[in-house]
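cache lookup: miss for this entity combination. No prior model stored, computing from scratch. Input as submitted by user K.M.:
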Amino acid sequence: MAILVDKDTSIIVQGITGREAASFTKDSLDYGARIVGGVTPGKGGQEVFGLPVTDTVRELTERFPVDATIISVPPPFVKDAAFEAIENGIRLLLVVTERVPRRDVVEIVELCRLRGARMIGPNSLGVISPGKSRLGMVGGPAEDVRKSYVPGNVGVMSRSGGMTTEIANLLTVNGLGQSTCVSVGGDPIVGSQFADLIDVFEADAETHALVLFTEPGGAMESALAARLRERPSRLPLFIFIAGKFVDQMRGVRFGHAATLVQSEADTTEAKARILSEAGVTVVEELSALPGLVKEALNG
Amino acid sequence: MRLYEHEGKALLERAGIRVPKGTLVSGSAADAGPSLGAATFPVAVKSQVLTGGRMKAGGIAFAEDADQLSAELTRLLGSEISGHRVETLLVEPKTQFDREFYLGITYDSAAKSAVAVFSQAGGIDVEQAGAAVKAEIPLLLPASGFRFKELLASAGLQGRLLSGMTGVFTKLAGLFRDNDCILAEINPLVLTPEGKLVALDVHVELDDDALYRHGDLVKRFGLEGRDADARERSPLERKAEEIDSADHRGVAGRMVEFPGNLGLLIGGGGASLTAFDAVQRHGGKPANYCEIGGNPSVWKVKELTKLLLSRKDVERIAVIMNVVSNTRVDLVARGVVKGILELGLDPAEKIAIFRIPGAWEEDGFSLLRKYGVPYADRTVSIDQAAKMAVAGAGGER
Amino acid sequence: MGEFIAVYLKDKECAEHEGCRRLISLCPVDIFVEGEGGAAVDEGQVDECTLCGLCWEALPDAVEVRRLYIDGAEARA
Ligand code: SF4
């Protein structure tokens, strides 16, 4: 059983007729994801790749059991799309849209809490369980996904979508497959942080080690460290922290919206310190990662 | 996006929170005279610059009479406070007070919630002062005063002060929500001898991603084009921004200059940070940070390459990205090679390493081979590629 | 001919296709422009070609796109 998404996870796409959504829908079908339909208001009745397009989420949830939705609509419509999904009983939301207003993100998080739903993202490329299914567009077209991702026992979580694939590829090239890889999203507030998802990885028998990628800024690492101090993980944990040079450049934003050093706690140095105190192996050089993981798995 | 103090105060006033009656002064001290004719002394003269710590930096002054005021106007207008030019001053009657407090609403990203923060130790050093109390504020529910009353009572407030402060905090929360702020902070909020609560200074930051639904504020405050971060751009950085915005396809810009000799064309967000660190780790001296992402046109990459090489001290460039699935290897390769050719230079000499595996890599690598450019595929990690670039070792050709 | 890409329009075949002008709106990166008596190639733009295939699928006899770094230039010149 893979976590978050598996072979049988039934998925819909909100905004399916958009340019980006249409292309990742096709790629995901090629990869074997069970996408059952899509929603675009005003385009109900059309078909995309043989899938029904409806005006409302309800028309799909009435026809199929739906486990997960991919939300790929412009920023002003994300909140309503997410509410529609949650109120129609969908319990896993992936939001790929970038630049969603922060208030809307927090309101979605609050509704998720009330209803027992989970949001990944916003600004996430998605979730993949290699060889089984994929939610979103992480890794690109199916043939490219197969080059970078192979099934195995290492979990990956990354604040950068591109680095999710880069790390999977590094593991793959060195003979290490992956259980599940999650692009958690590069925004200041995301629905699922490291500390939220670590439980899910720990509960997964197929995951034997967990690799994290992070950047300066944000509070995700201190939340993870707090969780680990309270309750150490059964998994060997590794983290690569990029952007050391940003430590010296307060107030300048690099890369993702959240990648900004405003205070001491935002620096890579502070993050490395609190995480290594909490038992996480801080990887200094990316190419050393596979060796360290192998050691932990064989030791 | 940070608002000026006077803009923040306009929002407070609209929300029903008391602020001193101020007058805005710009231009020269002479122009300002008439509008201040009716000033009641003493007054506070406050530089309107987008930075904290104005008091310490000498950006805030007091005047007892018209002569002192005109001297302060002359001194401050056009001066620089913490690297920011003072173009506007806010002149307010100086408020007498007995106590100062700190009130703030912001987001706590670990809690994924809005939070209210309160401290009895308001004033200029609240960040260090500690002793603040916090409470999460749900946004889905209509703002409700009891949450603030509870918070303030837990901080020891009582009686009329508790009721008055609860009212101000509830209004501040409404302002925060209605204007899509990411920070709304009153520091200090003072209690006057007459028992009134007055906001003496305010710091408001708006969510850049929500400005589209606040056309009124954008218009009223002229927010269009106000820089999101206050860093001065170098001419080359501004040129990079122009190139990026000249063509909507993909990203190829966000340049930050450094004093080194190795030009970097790197991306996406996380990988560019990784590559920059790796170059430094291996003893290289990056000439810049930048970020390529999405699917930039060949033209855009070409222009950025030429721009980088226009710097006399940039000897070579390294092109490094994560394994790409959206960006196309061949199109980036075309842009870089073409830029170098247009400068009459040799791509084989100027490109230290090209390491972008992923979509259309076969085409990209064929193209690079034709020009003898050293390249690396997905079996070479980002830091190994950085090492090659620094060592001048190159990859396959 | 660009540095990396060459786009050839066969005059004869193109003339026989009333729809040759279609290429102008078809190409996503504006490589075809209005020319004398039909479409023409904007040589300054050809290196932007994404090899998407829309043009040669629509008019296989009239247009040929070659990658100079793999296929070389047109043999017939
Ligand atoms: S292949 Fe596509 S991009 Fe290239 S010329 Fe034809 S239509 Fe234009």
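stored under new cache key. Chain C has one domain: 5-74.
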